Structures are given as C-alpha cells and as structure tokens.
Amino acid sequence: MTTAPWRDPALPAAARVDDLLSRMTPEEKTAQLYGVWVGAATDGDGVAPHQHDMAVEYDWDELITHGLGQLTRSFGTAPVDPALGAQALARAQRRIAGAGRFGIPAIAHEECLAGFTAWRATAYPVPLAWGATWDPPLVEEMARRIGDDLRSVGVHQGLAPVLDVVRDPRWGRVEETIGEDPYLVGTVGTAYVRGLESAGVVATLKHFAGYASSAGARNLAPVRAGVREFADVTLPPFEMALREGGARSVMAAYTETDGVPASADPGLLTRLLREEWGFTGTVVADYFGIAFLQTLHRVAGTPAEAAHAALTAGIDVELPTVKCYGRPLLEAVRSGEVPEELVDGAARRVLLQKCELGLLDEDWVPEPATAVELDSTGNRILARRLAEESVVLLDNPDGLLPLAPDTRISVVGPRAADALAMLGCYSFPSHVLTHHPEVPAGIDIPTVLDALRSELPDAKVTFAQGCDVTDPDTGGFEEAIARAAEADVCVAVLGDRAGLFGRGTSGEGCDATDLGLPGVQGELLDALVATGVPVVLVLLTGRPYALGRWHGRLGAVVQAFFPGEEGGPAVAGVLSGRVNPSGRLPVSVPQVPGGQPWTYLQPPLGLAGEVSNLDPTPLYAFGHGRSYTAFAWEDCSATEPAELGTDGSHDVSVTVRNTGGRAGAEVVQLYLHDPVASVTRPDVRLIGYQRVELAPGEAARVTFRFHADLSSFTDRSGRRVVEPGALELRLAASSTDVRHTAHVTIAGPVRETGADRRLRCETEVSPAPR
Prior knowledge:
It is a single chain. This protein is α/β, with parallel strands linked by helices. A seven-stranded parallel sheet has the order 1-2-3-4-5-6-9. The protein has a six-stranded mixed sheet with strand order 10-15-14-13-11-12, sandwiched between helices.
C-alpha cells in the first residue's frame, strides 16, 4: 500500500501539510478553521458572553463530512464523569475522522486557568495566587500536571494562561491575572506555558492584547491605553511567553484599542505577532469574537465581512462554534470577495499544529492510554503547596499570630464555612456546577472553619456567619458579635463569591464600582472590632480591597486570593503557625475604596503630591508580605557606582540571612529607578526577583545579572531603546521597602534594541561567603 506524502511521519511537517492542502477542496479547508460546541446552553446563564444569542443550529453529521477544526469543551460544558467523558470524546473523534475524506480528527480544547475545568479535576489556586507565590518553578510543575491530565482524556489545547496585566483592580477578571507588574506576569506566565507545553498540550496566551486596560474597569469596554503603555506594560508578558515559553497559540482579545478591535487588527495579529516576533502558531478567536465584529463593534455589516476582517487580521480559528467561518466565508471565497490564499494560510497553520500533535499520523488513536484520575494525591499535594506559598500575611503588629493551640476562637463571616469561597470563577464548581445544583462538587474542598478545627484540635472553636457576601441583611450581626465577645480571638473570614456576568462579586463580568468589601461585610468587621476582642481578618478574594478603614485596629490581616481546593488547610496552617507565610503581594492593597484605581507603575504625576487632596499611596505595597521569622540583608555589592555601556551588564549581589528561630522564605526583589528619560517613566518597576528558602541561621548569596536591555523602553518615535544616563538598582522587600541601592551609569549613544533583547534578569543563589 502506498502512503500519501502527508501521512508519512518521516517527511518534514511543512512538506506533509503542503501535500495535504493541495488535495483539499475549499469546503475541506474552511472546515479546519472553526470549532463546534456540543451541548452549549442557549439560555441567559451561559459561560461565555452573549452565549444565549450566539447559538447556532447545525446538523452534526452533515457538518463533519468535510472535517472539523476543533471540538469545544467536551468536559467543561456540563458535569461529565472523566473516564466516560474520555470514551465519549474518543468516539466523537472517530466519527469526525471517519466522516471526511482524509480521516483528520479535531483538536479538542478546554479551559485550564486554575486547573482543568472539568468535573472531579483538581481546582488549583487562581493565577493571582500564583503571582503571590513569586515561585515560577512551582507554577511550571502545576502546569505540567494540568497538561498531563488534559492529555490523559484526549485534550490537545488549553486556553491559558491569562497574561493581562492588572491596570484597574475593580475589573472583575483580576483573579485570572497574575498581577499588576509585567515582569512578574511574564515570568510566572512563561513558567505556566513551559509546563503545559512540556506535557504536549498547546498553551494559548490570552487575551491579546489590552483587555485588562478597559475603560472604567468594565468587562469588554473600549481600551484607552496609550502606545507606550501598550508597548511597555501590555505586550512584554506575551513576548516573553512566546520567545521563552514556546506557546503555540494566541487568543485575540474581545476589546478594541483606539477604535480598532483586536480581532480585526492586522497590525497586532500579523505585523507585530508574526512578522516582528516570528510567531508561527495559531491565532484563535475568543468565544464569538469574530461575530462580535458585526454585532458589538459594528465594523462589519455581515458575517462574511466579519470573517474577511478577522482572516485578514490573522485569526486562524473561529471559536467556540461555527458562525462566520462556515458557509458565509465559503460563499465569500467562491464569489471572490475573500481571497482563497487567506483561507490557505490559516488552514496551513491549523494543519501544521495537527501534524505536530500527531493527528495526521496513520497510527493515531483517540482512546486514553492510561486510567483517568484528575484529582490525584500528587495533584492535591501540589495544590496544597501552591496554596500555602500564596497566602500573604499583610500585618501582624503585636504577634497575635500564630494562634495559641488551646485558645477560644470565634470564627465569623460568610466565607468561613463555604467551600466555594476557595475557588475562582473558572473552577468547574463555580463555572459550571452552579447550573447543576443537584450535582456534588466532585472534589473535597475543606473550608477554613473545618480546616481550623482540624488544625487546632485543642481549641474551642465557635462559628457564626454574620451576613451573606452581598445581601444587605444585618440580622446575623447579633449572634456574630455574641460569639466574638465570648472568645479570646475572633477570626473574621470575609471576601468574594466568584461568578460570571454579575452572578458573583469577582470573575468575568463581575466588575466592581469601588474597592469596598462587598455587601455589609465592612459593617460586620466594624462590629467585631468594636467588641474589643482581637480580630484576625482573613480575606478570600479575587482582587485587593481597601483596608485603610481598619488599619491599626486589627490584630492581624491575612490575604488569600482564591487558594483552591487545598486553600482551607493552607490558611489554617498559617493561622496555627504550621505554615510560615511567604506570599508577597502581586497587586497593591489600597487605603480607600473609591475614585482612584491605581497600580504601583506610576510616573511622578501618578504619585501623591501637593496639587491634589487625594493620596493614591497604597496601604500595602506591591511585593509586600510578612513572615514569622526575620531576615537580614547584608554585604551588598553595591558600594561603589558602576559604569556600563548601552549593551553592557553589571552584577548586584546581597547576602540574605534568616535571623529568626524558624525556617522561612524571603523574596528578594530588584527594582529599576530611572531619574531622567526622554519620556516619563514609572518611578520604580520590577526587573528581577528571587525566592530564597532558608533554615534558621542559614544565609545565601543572591546575585542579579542586570543587563542594560532591562532599562529599555519605548521612546517618542516608537522605538524600544536603551538611553544613556544614571540609574538606580534597588534591592527591596517590596516596591517601597528598599534595603540597598546600586548606582549605575549607562554610557554611550542611544541604542535601539532588537528581537534578541534580554527579557529577564538572570539570578544566581549560592552559599553565603563565610
């Protein structure tokens, strides 16, 4: 039997795909450019914007006769037993392969933002909690496990990570981001990409680009970012994840910037992404994003025009289901309205990815090779470690924490006894199971209340809810106050309820008018503080909330950003002292709730000054976090000023010593301050960091290898340049807690950086010199 060249695995992928394309009809090519979403809800409670009015009727058997590009969320649409779901997906794939002339299966994709969004799969901490760990290797390990779980059931592509940089913490999707700094987002997000891709799963970077800069923090609002903010804050995480992480897919954002929707922007999706950055993978639409060019953006008059605009911009695949890239596109190609070369280019990229995944090979089989277990013991151990590293001790002024093992504890608050308090909006229980209240969660999720009782078995623990997350009813205050008054310490567990499109206080489409605690939780906290009993505030949230109202009145403050299924034991471990907190803030915590959305990346006019009565200075700065031990920063190498060229480098070192009585982790952060530049620059910005774990008395030498490229920025002409001049490299425990400063001068002419510029500051940890 003669094997067609496109089936021959010995040939280069490009040659195989060229041969296959030459044999395909326009119908077969366009069929590779869309997905289908089986079982998607058509009512008003969907999991994607406008899902109810974007549903499309189709005949499955007729649709797949020409092939199919993608299968949308076979596991993430409704509760499906993982083993049975894997078998059902395999049967569907065999039907797809058997229906077309070439026997090509679809790429199956799923959401995997904080774990595989499937029933009975591990619910890991949300990305904002990854940022709080400042531990990229641990995030990479998590992503590898997520990828292994996806592959074990036949999924090829994961729609993660989110690389949007927080610009306004009122935005509902802050929980999905890694933080407010592009370097932190880039390094942690790149680690996630490496992990997912190492498992053979296509990582999809989203949302490209500018989505988090939407006006007024409203989901899917216009983006008002300037060109330099876009270039220097929005884009760097994506570039790093592509260049260093090897991501094979990018998702176009819903939003429009300066009047141009991302899904119709060839400057973004082709000239920048493909021509300048050299990206060769696939660009996929965010769900219904191509149709939105007609219905929401109104830059297209028909589905065919929307398809033409998106293909021209560079979108290869329409997700989640066929609407514009099906019959409207095919008819436009036949009429000459859309050049067939556009379809060929997109189909070639899709088929190259399928070739890489082994889907064009004759020996391809869709059935799982191993038993399916999506919440293994190993997963849970890793979820616990991530959760523990992500908890941030914001304040502990009088050493109230850790709690005494035999104390009387009153646990109060609407988040204390609710398992969903641990989970973000893209976890399966919050994302899907809210529509299936009769179905159990499928995973064990200990609450803070249950975990604290297990953690401190000799303590007397009472509980009162006090209030709901959003309900204005204060009828439960009386019991909560009574329980608190009887205790030695009150643990107030407050925060968010994750949801979608207004069905929660955090999550997609759950944007906040201000940064006050939701509902009457602030009033409950006031009442608890008024009892005179020391109050430990525990926040389980998807964004930072203003805490200035209680500053100096609380015994301790603990912040956890939706820490996942093992978050309850992690928080309880911090309260008991079993866990020494090591999390650091990936976002600033504000003083007051309204009027001044703010991140730490501010030029001089964005800082507090005499010309306004409003002070935007945060209560707790970016990078802040306390520990139950103490660290000394000694013997800094930055004693003498240094000079380097515009392509030069300089090492800065410091010895960190654990001077306390227990093991702990310090996060050494390196910030750049540029006193004079040709355009205004952030007062400080993160350019390097290193997490260091030390036993009592142990010391380590941390060295940062600063390169001049790390000082580059976008100048007035739009070039990324390194300018000569004086700089300060600040070794710090947060963006405001500077321990040592190295003065360096960059000498020489202005240098324009190229595609090979250094994106990260390499670090080295070595034994401290004796």
